[in-house]
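From: lab user (bench 3)
To: helpdesk
Subject: output format question, protein + beta-D-galactopyranose

Hello, I'm new to running complex predictions and I'm not sure whether the block I got back is the full result or only part of it. Here's what I submitted:
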Amino acid sequence: MRFSMFLFTACLAGSLTGQAQDVPKKQAEFKPGDVWLDTKGEVINAHGGGLLYDKGTYYWFGEKRGQSASEGVNVYSSKDLYNWKPEGMALAKSTDPGSEIAANGLMERPKVIYNPKTKKYVMWFHLELPGQGYNAARAGVAVSDKVTGPYTYQKSFRPNGHMSRDMTLYVDDDGSAYHVYSARDNYDLRLVKLTDDYLSATTQDTLLFSNHREAPALFKKDGQYFLITSGCTGWAPNRASLHTATSLFGPWKLVGDPMKGPMADKTFDGQSTYIQPVQGKKDAFIFIADRWNPKDLKDSRYLWLPISFTNNQPVVEWTDAWTTGVWKK
Ligand code: GAL
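Helpdesk reply: Thanks, we reran it on our side. This is the complete output you should expect:
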């Protein structure tokens, strides 16, 4: 009786104040490292992710993680970059035990690009085959007619025979797309041009540098390419580095660490995954990193930070809370 009385009072209080009980409040800023909730109040589960801006909406694709399991690829949508609506799983694990994407394998660092010629959305990711740990080192490809999926798994391979682990995709101004990937047991960072349909690798495949780097995140400003990478220490954070080039095929020049301020030497306890241009703002790019929690991977946090420029070189500085208002134009 006392229990139901309490419930009644609680419901009444909720309705009197006009507040929905389980809808989280609208987000109006980024809080790097906090727990980020989606528009339904669930913790966002999209790690090692990447964004795609498509017809006025941003889509965030990322690894769905259990405590340690890799459970497929989640997708969220947002108009403002702060409030993310869950759109379900873009690519789920296959229930066919013979599939390359069956349970017990890994799908990491998914990235999606749109091909205007074929009108298909194309997802690439780092695939590890079921039961083989990190030994397969392959690129996986999936396709959909709809941005949120479900994506249909196509195939996996090693580009031109090279191992392929941490990766990103990049579409240049002329519509050519590229896969940037850690090869040769992560000692080499390579770049390969994709075929016109974005589904395969061409033989235009080059070594960028051999510095034992991973977690590549790439962007372009004023004809200059900027590539931020991490070192190779598993889930543990390390120092980031920045390379620049005027051609994707190099030469790439090592500039140094673009992170600035306290904890910069460990990328603020994070690891790069993507750099997203902000629509409608000039020279506005968001540096996106994961703060991994290897004891509970789904609880890994998101570090989104604004990129500023000093002498035309990108700088990423820690801030506890910020908005896209940091860019005036
Ligand atoms: C990191 C890599 C992650 C994940 C992890 C596993 O170096 O960037 O994506 O593969 O290793 O230990």
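A quick orientation on your result: Residues 30-326 form a domain with the Tachylectin-2; Chain A fold (CATH 2.115.10.20). Let us know if anything else is unclear.
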